[in-house]
Design a protein that fits this description.
The protein is an alpha+beta fold and about 400 residues long. Helix content is about 55%, strand content about 15%. It has a four-stranded mixed β-sheet. Strands 2-3-7-6 form a four-stranded antiparallel β-sheet, covered by helices on one side. Strands 9-10 form a two-stranded antiparallel sheet. A hairpin with a 5-residue loop joins strand 4 and strand 5. The radius of gyration is 21 Å and the shape is globular.
């Protein structure tokens, strides 16, 4: 438990932990093997309110602050990382952009449906040639009568088939992007087959073709050429969410390894008594705890941007979010790798949980910005600070 948690946060965390224990843990190996999540789990998430965590109460959501959301999301990731990824995409960037830049009409139309789980959301920014550089998006949005026509291809769209609406970024001018709310029943919206990923295998990740998709003028969120700024704001929140997902994965790996170390005996004693193995557990524990601390520190920086205490540079939310994602994802991979090593030959077997956790952890080092990109972002913010100090 985090020492600064309120009683309400502890209760919500326990509720999420109980949900993960009962609804996710027993089936996660089955979902991984099947490469799919059942509709029933989304109904259960909706019934528990977990699809409306960041939606304000006035729109039918729970209205959590970001630290409370992170406490819950960590437990969901502890239960199943693929479920946590779907929840984070639905709850985080899409809701954030709607709240900050959407019209009141758009909020009234979409937020209650998102909060209740009636509609699942997806986020479509990346493209075959626009991964780490969102400014190079080539999907085009052209004015068409009273609305817009979208043409292009998106990659790695989580929830891309199951979702009812996809927040889609497309080029509206030579230098500008727009953010559009695209209903998935629109003519010309064509999701492809599920990607065959190494980890997070149950996650619904697909490519999407937009073949002349027509949307009304009310589908455009905010200004027609400000979508890149909106996307970068949302990525800060998304990276904080990925950081806490990684913490959940790393924590799960550590717990499995510790229990196994107490049960497995060699040379007449539990292997947990061996100093080399204890070092592995200790190193995993402090790295995962550090990732959690950075995620919550980034959450406070993010809140500062929402209340008007804007900060940039190494103390700002962009740097903090990148630090949290970098540290937490690498901690998760370290903990999962060490857990496999502690399990020995059994850890290498597909039907033991640490093998799956090792695959899942790797994903957190890649999506929404690789570790290399996170280092570039952090260094850029540090250099910006240094440049401002000299001027």
């Amino acid at each position: 438990m985090t020492p600064t948690m309120s009683d309400e946060q502890r209760e919500l965390q326990q509720l999420a932990h109980d949900f993960a224990s009962a609804e996710l843990r027993p089936a996660t190996a089955e979902w991984d093997a099947a490469r799919a999540l059942p509709d029933e789990i989304f109904a259960a998430l909706a019934g528990s309110g977990f699809l409306g965590m960041l939606v304000p109460e006035e729109y039918g959501g729970l209205g959590f602050d970001l630290p409370t959301y992170l406490h819950v999301l960590e437990e969901i990731a502890w239960g199943d990382a693929a479920v946590a990824l779907s929840v984070a995409i639905h709850c985080g960037p899409v809701v954030e952009i709607l709240l900050r830049h959407g019209s009141e009409e758009q909020k009234r139309r979409w937020l209650p449906a998102l909060a209740s789980g009636e509609t699942l959301a997806a986020f479509a920014l990346s493209e075959p040639d626009a991964g780490s550089d969102p400014s190079s998006v080539s999907t085009v949005a052209e004015r068409d009568g009273g609305g817009w026509r979208l043409d292009g291809e998106k990659r790695w769209v989580t929830n891309g088939v199951r979702a009812g609406v996809v927040l889609t970024f497309a080029r509206t001018s030579e230098d500008g992007l727009g953010a559009f709310l695209v209903p998935t029943d629109s003519e010309g919206y064509r999701p492809g087959a599920r990607e065959k990923t190494m980890g997070l295998r149950a996650s619904e990740t697909v490519r999407v073709r937009l073949d002349g998709v027509h949307v009304g003028a009310d589908a455009l969120v905010g200004e027609a050429d400000a979508g890149l700024r909106y996307a970068l704001e949302a990525l800060d929140l998304g990276r904080i969410g990925i950081a806490i997902q990684a913490v959940g994965i790393g924590r799960a790996a550590l717990e499995h390894a510790a229990r196994y170390a107490l049960e497995r005996e060699q040379f007449g004693t539990p292997i947990g008594r061996f100093g080399a193995l204890q070092a592995k557990l200790a190193d995993s524990a402090h790295r995962v705890a550090g990732g959690r601390a950075l995620a919550h520190e980034a959450a406070h920086a993010w809140a500062a941007t929402r209340n008007g205490t804007l900060r940039t540079g190494a103390a700002g939310v962009t740097a903090r979010a990148a630090m949290a994602k970098l540290a937490a994802s690498e901690a998760a991979s370290f903990a999962a790798d060490e857990a496999v090593q502690i399990f020995g030959g059994y850890g290498y077997m597909r039907h033991y949980p640490v093998e799956r956790l090792m695959r899942d952890a790797k994903g957190a080092e890649i999506y929404e910005g690789t570790s290399e990109i996170m280092r570039r972002v952090i260094a850029g913010e540090i250099l910006r600070d240094s440049g401002d100090a000299r001027s």
